[in-house]
Structure formats: C-alpha cells, structure tokens
Fold Olfactory receptor.
Amino acid sequence: MELVNRTEIFEFFLKGFSGYPALEHLLFPLCSAMYLVTLLGNTAIVAVSVLDVHLHTPMYFFLGNLSILDICYTSTFVPLMLVHLLSAQKTISFVGCAIQMCLSLATGSTECLLLAIMAYDRYLAICRPLRYPVLMSHRLCLLLAGAAWGLCLVKSMTETVIAMRLPFCGHRMVSHFTCEILAVLKLACSDTSVSEVFLLVGAILLLPIPLAFICLSYTLILATILRVPSAAGRRKAFSTCSAHLAVVMLFYGIVIFMYMKPKSKEAHISDEVFTVLYAVVTPMLNPVIYSLRNKEVKEAARKVWCRSWTSK
C-alpha cells in the first residue's frame, strides 16, 4: 500500500500566499526588484574579482564564492515563486521539488561554512600577516572552498533522498512557498525520525559550530587590533574585516531570530512574509555591504567600468 501511495505522487501544491491575493500582488514587484538587484550586484562582485588582478587574493576569491552562492540560492526558488505569485496553479513536480530542496539546502549550508572560512582567512591576514601568503596559499583556498561545496552537496543530497523516499499520503499541499524539507516531511505518513535526526545533526554542525569558530576568530582579531599602536593602523586593520563581520551579523542574526523566537501553534502570515524577505533580502544586501565597506572593491569597480568605456 505504501508503494502505491508513493508512486502516485507526481507533483506537490505549494500553498505560499494563495489565501492573500492582495499580498501576492504586493510581493511580486518587491521580490522581482530585489532578485534583479541580487543578480546584478553579485554578478558585478564576481566580475570585478576576476577582471581586476589586484583582487586576485584569498579574500576576494572567497567573496566571489559567496556571491555565486547567493545567486544560486535565490535562483533555486525565486523564479518559480514569482510565477506562482501571479498564477492560480501553484504546482511543482516531484522531481522538481526534490531538486529545489537539495539545492536550497546545499547552498544555505555552504554559506555557513564559507563564512567561517572567510573568518579564518581574516584571522590569518591580521594575526599572522608575515606568514599569511604561505599559510593561505592558492591551493588551500581551492581545497577549503571545494570541501565546503562538496561536503554540503553530499549532505543535502543525503537529506533529500531520505526525505523524498518516504511514503506520502493524504493531501499534497506544502504549507510553504518552496519545497522546504520540514514542510514536505509533514506530508509523510510514516516515521520521519531518521530524517529529523539527520537534519538536527546537520543543523548543529553548520550553525553553532561555525558561529563559535567565527566568534573565536574575531576575538583573536580584536585582541590583535587593540595591540596596534597607532589609531590609523587599527582603523586599517579593522576595515579589512568589517564588511565580512557585517555580513556574518546579518546572516546569523536573522537565522537566530527565526529559529529561536517562540513558536505559536498556528502559523502567522507575518512569519511567512518575514521568511520570504529574509531569503531574498540577505543575498541582495551582501554585495551592497561589501561595496560600501570596502574601498578596494569600489576602486576596482571604477577601474573596470572606466576600462570598459575606454575600450568602446
């Protein structure tokens, strides 16, 4: 009987904001504009990091990876969400749901590790400046970034396969605007404890542990900066990591707020709107923060822009 129920599932219905048509019409232009800014801003960061030789450093290599992550993360759900905001038929195929679930889990998980790697890079640059070129070699940068992408992809594929192999029965309405794994698990009609254990272990490995590593790195960085004799030297040292610190505070601050606030028995539409805005706003703000807080990025962008115009 379980096999029959499982094989009959060809698509899911994404509830989203179907009960609030006026809100859908408001979110469509808002999310469209923010998604466009996300694509343009992060693409610009990647382009500048590649085209300007002065930015061929570990810091900007990881920043380029972060920008690619933001593009991939938002692209896993925003285009389909925009279509659903204007459509009465809000469906996604079973395979499409699995792909969306896996990619969103992978990109979100990778960002947690990448922010920790970037904190380690800033620690070496400020606390071990003389040995920094040796310690943070190009090979190590590739290894760290590749390991973060690869491990999180394997983890997410495992979680997705376990979740999607469960028998689904009853209604196929996912109470979310994407195939979020916890929302999909609520539709399963068998024991989901194995999937929940995997998710719990993954959450522990990718949230508190990287955050603790980041806090330790910045504690050591702050201690080193305070020992710098001149005020100008302290400002210069802090400016090299202020943008990354702002991104970390934004990312983890919102995540902690979302998951640590008291849960009500009934879902509120305000929580869903906040989730949408968090998922779209954070990737949009990352390139803005790095552009405003980093003189090297602004100067490199100006050079690339002037070079492109003079070549015409």
Remarks:
- The chain has 13 helices and three strands.
- The chain has one domain: 2-307.
- Confidence is low (pLDDT under 50) at residues 1-7.
